[in-house]
Amino acid sequence: MGTHIFMTVGSLCVDSMLDFPGALAHPPPMIIAIDGTLASGKGTLARRISARYGLPHMDTGRLYRATAVSALRRGTDFGDSDAMAEVARRLDLGSFDEADLRTPEAGQAASKAAAIPAVRSALLELQRTFASQPGGAVLDGRDIGTVICPDADVKLWIDADVRIRAERRLTEYLAAGQDWTFEQVVAQLDERDARDRNRLTAPMAQATDAVLIDTGPLTIDEAVERASAVIDEVRVRRET
Ligand code: C5P
To answer: Is 119 in the pocket of ligand 1 (CB under 6 A)?
Structure first.
């Protein structure tokens, strides 16, 4: 059994698990940036990497989802960037029901909120503070390796063919009792990825020094092993 470590940064509570036998008592800090497309598996991968290396994890998409859900609840005009930034600054991240943040509508609204430069600025410091913890951290999102942590020790770009990603997302929706067709999910992924890729500020992009992991043909265990091989290579290089 591993040891649960609860950390609080701002209003964010993070539970990390130290569960790997070879963990060094005081390993050098390591920032791991995991970016990628929608439903590519980056969130699951980030959680597994966080547990394996005993590093705190921040799901940065949750910040944009919480901003959007909060704005929708308050009736904030998404066209009013000052008001939207104020919502982002005042987020109480502990106050959200996780299920409310995970709906397809919250995801769509999050990508609209994320295209507002003032919202991105309002959330930037929180992410950088999280990343600069003494031991390091794992952050997953769309702009971690390019904007939030351009000097991250490890950068991974996670992607898969859109039809494979759509199959995974459809399975989740159907399991949650939501009535979607495969083509609707493909259209949803294409639309959201296009908005994230084409926005002017911090567009979703693979950093030039990020290692691509195509999760299409991989199980999650295989993707974790692939990512761990990249991380271990960097650790060995840094420690020798
Ligand atoms: O990853 P997730 O689907 O939760 O992200 C929701 C939305 O938040 C994304 O579609 C994207 O628009 C935005 N996002 C972002 N930058 C990040 C993380 C998420 O723009 N670092």
So the answer is: no
